[in-house]
Here is the input.
Amino acid sequence: MPRLLGLTLLGALLPGLGLIAGGRRRIGAFVLTLFLGLVGLGVYVGLTRRDQVLAAAVVPSRLLLTSVLIGALAFLWIIVIVASHRSLRPATGGAGGRALGAGFVGILCFAIAAPAAVGVQTVLAQRTLVQDVFQAQGESKSATRPKVVNVKDPWEGKPRLNLLLLGGDDAPSREGVRTDTVIVASIDTKTGNTSLISLPRNLTFMPFPKDSPLYKYYPEGFGKEGLSLEGRLEWMLTAMYQNVPDAHPGILGPSDNEGADVVKQSVGEALGLKLDYYLQVNLQSFPEIVDALGGITVNVNERVAMGGISSSHIPPKEWIEPGPSQHLDGRHALWFARGRYGADDDQRQVRQRCVIKSIVDAADPQTLVTKYKAIAKAGQHLLRTDIPQELLPAMVQLALKVKSGTVSNVTLDSEKLRLKYLHPDYQALRDTVENALESTPAPSATPPPTTTRKPTTTTTAPPPGPTQNLADACAYQPNGDQPN
Here is the structure.
């Protein structure tokens, strides 16, 4: 019996070997050769074709085929285990031996079936995520994304890909959607080096390009003169997502997300960039994705409020205390990115960029493999985008470059650019962004000190030193010397 069980186990680990030992040499040799060939092919593909495998992981048809193949291979493996044991088992064995052997074979079959079932479920979860979040180009509507894309080489002649990242404040208790977080990620398609540009949510008179239908209604930008501070709230960048489509429904053409198209056009004009696609995060579901990743690690340089209302002098009940390398769960990570009490928009923008960096760092291969079902489920509730399915393989390749590239922050001098005034200097803002994207950020670049002066109506020269590596910006600086 020990010899029988040992050979059965060996035949399960090396399919075909048990058949050979049981006298079925020809079919056993075929199965063993096939198994070793598949293992060799898998090792070769894993070592030399990793990028192509990851790219295939965002194609729904290939994911469906992969799930079928996993199920079929597991089924055939179980058949080989059962057949090996039957060929090894002596015909004169007693009932007790037969029962022990059958139980052992059952355990081996379960050891194959369980991981295969998890694998199939993970692959199908990925397929559902891709289909729910990313629509095919012909099945979705966007008024602002590129009309023609070379799927085989989408970055040909395109040195930078510009993505608009929106944080939406939608919740059952709130009326409408406010985009409190507006960040542009400009990615060098050759190196993956990424520059993040955060715009204050309270910008007024946001411009539109002259070829936009909205320019006719807002030639001087989205804003109104002579309003009180409270009245301006409905004419700020944070309100455009909701208010412009409400006032001019369908003006940009067919769209699955009119608010995102409006903000894309306006932000692109303000920065002097052509924005290609958007990624919108539902902040109410943000904790779910952070928890699925197992949390994120950030440096906390100052107390961050969890709640509280500054204008009403209502203090928060909880705080995130300062400290290096703090591991935050989803709830604390959301407040770290959004906490307003006692903080200005500049501080919040720094924290938001650090959260983005920490999420990129947390999405390592081990985490993705072990927790992917939860991540995929959270992603279905979290994301909206106009990136078409056809572009996803190329996006995966670019994401690998971003993972190993440098992420830097484009520093915007609020005073020089008049960002907190009724009429910001958008031309100077465009010059600043152009300078930043043309320069190569140093690993530890630090913006030079600026002198306070009375703002003028126009600024002809962009501020110098516009970039800073996020590794520096997000470092632990307990003395409060925090970049902004």
Summary: The longest strand covers residues 179-188. Residues 440-465 have pLDDT under 50 and may be disordered. Residues 95-133 form the longest helix (39 residues). The two ends are 73 Å apart (CA to CA).
